[in-house]
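Q: I'm writing up a methods section and want to include an example of the input and output format. Could you take the sequence below and give the corresponding predicted structure tokens, formatted cleanly so I can copy it straight into the document?
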Amino acid sequence: MRLTRAGEYAVRCVLYLSKKGKGVLVSRKEIADYAVIPGHFLAKIAQDLAKAGMIEIRQGSRGGFRLIMEPKDITLLSVVETMIGEIFLNDCVVRPDSCQVSPNCSVHNVWMQAREQLRDTLRNVTFAQLIEQPVCISE
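A: Here is the clean output for your methods example:
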């Protein structure tokens, strides 16, 4: 599994907004520049993050984005899955009926276990924790 570009950019966007703090309005240009996200891509990402209830979008010349959740309440899993959907490592995990042998397949069980371990790892990391460490975004 590889994280999509949209997923990576969404993580950077939320990371940057988390560093600024909940409720702080940040211009789209500032986020795009510091988080190295193409402006047109940022607009799409922001829509998805807003639908998920993580950020608010303000339009106009004094507009931008602001985090409406506390960084401690946003997990890496929630941001990634907002952008790419629920993580599945193999078709048989998401659609067991796509494989005739899934119920009796030892590999299916490994895919299920790996999926849960990955989701647990991402679920246990909050943006509050991430901003306490050196991050990939300058300020």
